[in-house]
What does this fold into?
Amino acid sequence: MQSDIPVYYEPSLPRSLLPIHLYFPLESAIPVLISSYNMCNDEVYGDWYRGCSHFVKSYYSGTRTDCMQPLCGLSSAHIHHAPNCPCPKAAGDDRRIQSMFHKACEECRGAEFARRVGR
It folds into this structure.
C-alpha cells in the first residue's frame, strides 16, 4: 500500500532523523513537516494515579531539555530563520512524579460515579 504523502529527504540531515514527510495541506504554499524524532521537553511535576494510569499535572518547573534537532522549532540548533517556518514548535512533557496514588484520579472517579447513578 503506497502513501499519498511524498517522502522528502534533506541531504544535510543525518540518517537518524529520517523519514521526514513533507506534504501540502489544502494546496497551501507552506509545507508542513512531520517527523518521527523526539522534540524538546518541558519538565512538569504532578501526581500519578495507578488506578486509571493518568498523570495529573501540578506545575511546570521552567526547565526545558533541548533536543538539538535541526527541524525542531524550539531547539537552539534550529536551521530555519523565517518567521513562517513550518517546523513544529510544540514541546513535549518530561514528567516528574511527586506522588503516586493506587486509586483512580478525581475526574475518573467522578465519571464512574455518574455512570453508576445514571447522571
